[in-house]
Design goal:
Four copies of one chain form a homotetramer.
Chain A lengths: L14 H9 L9 E8 L2 E8 L2 H7 L4 E7 L8 H21 L8 E5 L10 H8 L4 H6 L11 E4 L4 H4 L3 H12 L3 E9 L9 E5 L18 H4 L3 E11 H18 L4 H5 L1 H4 L2 H12 L7 E4 L2 H20 L14
Parallel strand pairs in A: 4-5, 4-6, 6-8
Antiparallel strand pairs in A: 1-2, 2-3, 3-7, 7-8, 8-9
Helix pairs in contact in A: 3-13, 4-13, 9-12
């Protein structure tokens, strides 16, 4: 399998991280990028808007809307918190749909990207498994569908190694035949930061771009390609060994820098070179040995199930008015 | 969920059973239907040809070619026998392709029909999981593919209740975009006979017709619909409670009939009415109570894995010359 | 594998069925057996007490207490009903403990009998997986355990074919070392009646006897053997093909008998022989052919998960006062 | 859950790593520790003997025998190589038994430690699932067992969080009742080195000591505790984030040290402090943030299945003369 070349830079799938890197430690505002932050109950919601080409170029992200939920405590596996996050996610997703002009009746195709045989890459298929599917009722008994629902279908197209077919090909074939008004694509991501793994959810209206997520997507899922709007929901579930090292060296720098101020003495050049240079150093060492492994926390089985339930419950409540946000859990396994 | 009305007659998905029913106990030959039987090592292979409209009408099956493997001993779960059956299946399937004019280079899309969450309906998805997939190499590195392989892709399209989309829609979308030369569709079937469950494999070049198999397919997968030849591979994995009763009454009739000849005394009217009438009687009793359950043997988990391995191994060897029929098992889990 | 000889009579694991068979169609009361029936919301609860040797002999069951929940509508997979049944089960189980003199502080070992690789036999292991386990806290941090809980441990000992060890040996070893005050053993059963499969739960304080349940237990789990009280919870999940036939012939008899009265004409001798004789006739036909399969409904995967959730939720609420019976579901997956 | 305190030093479960650390970069021989290395086909076998107290103290390992297989290429998932490693493992294990005086007829209890719900901790249960179990035949039909087999039973005792019972309690209960001559305990380990994850297998006759492996074992499985010899088979499947960082800093040191010689300039103090000090520094930074995650490679599902097959196949061939080492794979799924 060829390497995921795109990942071999301080690349991130999260707009929030891209913005932070562009801002630098001073957190200087970026023209063309607006931001709104809200936090309560340990759930931090950041709504980013990349309004124009200048903003887009500054942070290396497409023009569009991005919402990020950060919930560090999700790592502790608290069922009550998961329920709370599902409710916030549902509300944010519903607002997001309104903001980008998707109506209550728009039919939806949920696409669960990823490989069900690889636990950290199985988020998409798991969400599909728990989504509330209704399209068949609209097709077979249209006059018997209760109000408060909309037409939702879902597919987990698999990955190239399992099917021999690009997932985007499978999706496009289905879009051509079933004509949904909106695609929602779920994907597991690689994180630039150890602490974001399994604790962060991103919603974006820019679709899935080639090379994003885990695995190597050669073709994307975007409005340009599919002809319908495409919202991407992503959760970081893995990171590179080199990312961990780089990340920890940064923490060490901050840690020792705050104290005595002789970071340079402790860390040598590793202290004052840029993050990009430092990561290159780390890779220079790891790659020839084939040791730049992609890793995931030991507890990934439980994490991925928890996050998939949050996303599925949240989507069910956001897409169907008849599904009560306080009781979203009841519709998933 | 609406009932599978088509199953509510002495219906069968096996051409061999349809032929036997049409022939009656005297086994009179049927004009327009030719038959070739071969048996060795406990594996009985029947090659049926329905040559013309007369034959088709007589047995209620489409004009076409049908091959059936019957292996009663498969019920015992002997690994050595499974390997042997995989080899015979591979050889028969390869001959079948030649007979119906499919060349060595024809590209193939394997379609695994059925619901992976329902064990007796998971045959198709399991075969897909174990099939040797190569299309991606032909697309990405065409000049590096070794000789002895052909282009194979595979998809398990799920069922209407899981995806909201007819499996035939999903398949047609993929066929439109990837243009395979041949479809091979795998499906679990309902059996008319208790002893055929998990011991019989049918190959047919007539595709999948609406209402066949487990679940209620509203649209088929046929050459007419898809525009490419479609071979169906089916294995009976379930039967109706009423089928069992009817089946056993038939066995009782034979059993007591052979002995003293007073079957009538023992079984009353159940002895001399037609099979169709008797089944109606049984249904008349069971259906109003909601007790005409579809059942499967207790050991279905192990059976379905064994049969899926046979079919996947056999297909891998039949489709790729480079895969050795004696060692087909190595390519599956 | 040797046959389950015990099952080859009109045997049943349900005391309720044994009583009904002993009573005959007239439902004559049986001395030494008292009965209390309550029904609401489609849930029928029968509390049987076998008070003395006469009662025991009459129905062929050990002296003891038996509670049966019958919920025909469970077959429809309604989540709301499952929740309701879990609550009733919790209440009945709590009363049962009181009735047989088990205190609030009695420590419990839950034993999940059966084979996790055979879906209809996996009830016990599934309940264990979802039980609220607390013993480790009492052992490690006894002063930090909140009130409202008791000491609960759990084990799925596997089956002889998987481990080479009788499950009763494994349990006895654990009992010797951990000294629980009570054993609760969960087991899947064979049913005499098609309609009881997956719709009936039995609680009994007589333990598990050799040859009961699915699989062939050579040693039991009883107070005599283990030295502590042993409650058995059982759910029928399979039945024999011969049982189905016998069952349906009985239904036919009732059906035609009610109408014109010429059942004899229709069914011959099958009409007026005893159930036991009829079953022998059926077996005489099926067994030599090896066709007396043990079968389970096609939807067993979903059924078994639903019933396991009911039993686990119910047990969690009944065993721990701190677990709210209205919210029992939250503690299981 | 309390932290695994024992892991918070440059601790390793591998005797080979302990020896290398004790030797230092000069690889000076250690009195009381003898070593034999053999390498072919990319499989490196190291046989260590810790002969006396001096040797034991020098490397911090119990007196005993240790065999390590290192196969870096296992990371590539080559089926042919897996087969080869299973054969070498079988041969080494058989020799190991002979060396420590275990006879051909010694009965064996295989113990699969770990949590089947946590993929990187599921090695033990997976090996148990694939082991060839024979004890039941010796118990039930002793005169019908073919020559070339021995009495083998197996159990996966679960973990404290799942059962409420220490796995050692479960095992001791079973040992008390079934009296095996030998215990073979399989466990997943934490590695000190990124490159050993999923590529190394250790055999040792010192049993399982408290605090070894993944999870926090409070009691061990040793001859002292159980009264029978106990062989441990371990495979590293996870490591700490801090281990990765420390490991990479070591690689950087070597990398830059070889070149220009100005490592100090690049890495500051990180260059010349001891490994132990460096790891402390890293932990000082990571722990307060709760970021010293235990991680595993993204491909863990496939790795663990591959390694479990190797160990199970190898054990089956080593324990039963009738199982052919060239065909060991056929006995596992």
């Amino acid at each position: 399998m060829e390497p995921d070349l795109q990942l071999y830079s301080v690349r991130t799938d999260l707009a929030l991280e891209a913005k932070e890197m562009a801002q630098g430690p001073q957190r200087t505002p970026i023209p063309g990028v607006n931001e709104e932050v809200e936090e309560s109950d340990g759930i931090k919601v950041t709504r980013l808007g990349v309004a124009n080409a200048a903003g887009s170029q500054a942070i290396g992200r497409a023009i569009g809307n991005y919402v990020t939920l950060e919930v560090p405590a999700l790592r502790n596996g608290d069922t009550g918190l998961q329920q709370k996050v599902a409710e916030v996610f549902a509300r944010e997703f519903e607002d997001f749909l309104t903001r980008i002009g998707i109506g209550k009746d728009a039919s939806v195709l949920i696409v669960g990207l990823g490989n069900w045989n690889v636990t950290p890459d199985s988020l998409g298929p798991l969400v599909v498994e728990n989504a509330l599917i209704t399209r068949q009722f609209y097709e077979l008994v249209p006059d018997q569908v209760s109000p408060g629902y909309r037409k939702v279908s879902a597919i987990a197209p698999g990955v190239l190694g399992l099917t021999g077919i690009e997932s985007s090909e499978v999706v496009q074939g289905i879009v051509d035949r079933t004509k949904p008004d909106l695609i929602i694509a779920i994907d597991a991501l690689a994180s630039r930061s150890l602490e974001r793994i399994n604790t962060t959810i991103q919603i974006a209206d820019i679709g899935i771009h080639p090379g994003s997520g885990i695995g190597n997507k050669r073709r994307g899922l975007t409005q340009e390609i599919l002809g319908v709007p495409c919202i991407a929901i992503g959760v970081p579930t893995v990171c590179y060994a080199s990312t961990i090292v780089n990340n920890v060296l940064e923490m060490m720098k901050n840690h020792f820098g705050q104290g005595a101020g002789h970071t340079k003495e402790i860390m040598g050049m590793l202290d004052d070179i840029s993050e990009q240079e430092r990561l290159s150093l780390v890779k220079e060492v790891l790659e020839p040995l084939g040791h730049d492994l992609i890793v995931t926390p030991k507890e990934i089985d439980e994490f991925i199930e928890g996050i998939a339930n949050i996303v599925a419950s949240g989507l069910n409540a956001a897409l169907h008015d008849a599904v009560d946000p306080e009781n979203v859990g009841a519709y998933t396994h």
